[in-house]
Amino acid sequence: STQSTWGGDTETSDLTMKNVPYHADVVAFCGALCAAVAALPGMDYQLACEHEHSCCILIAKSSFLRDGKWHTWIDYPRFFELVAKGEPFSTEDYTAPTPDWAVVGAPEHGFDPAETRVRRNRH
Fold this sequence. Notes:
The protein is an alpha+beta fold and about 120 residues long. The protein has 2 helices and 6 strands, in the order H-E-E-E-E-E-H-E. About 20% of the residues lie in helices and about 15% in strands.
């Protein structure tokens, strides 16, 4: 698909839709970026989530991939419970599993199936 979101023209910028990359290009760039930094110490990142309509990719540390499932969402009630305790905690203590539809490569391409999607042709 060749969907993207455009924020509009401004008087101070010459940018147009012609400057907006296609989602597939963003996915490829982010994959190449993960591969390029993989040889560096502590730089174990992968493509985790996508939102095709916004032309966005989430690159996450591989440590957020647990038992074959990404945990890139925040369990806010748990997070605030931990904050209220006043004790040290880490991201592993409050992350939540990523919905299947948000994972890179899912047929929904990051679009929540409970939402109504409107498709327009790109000019």
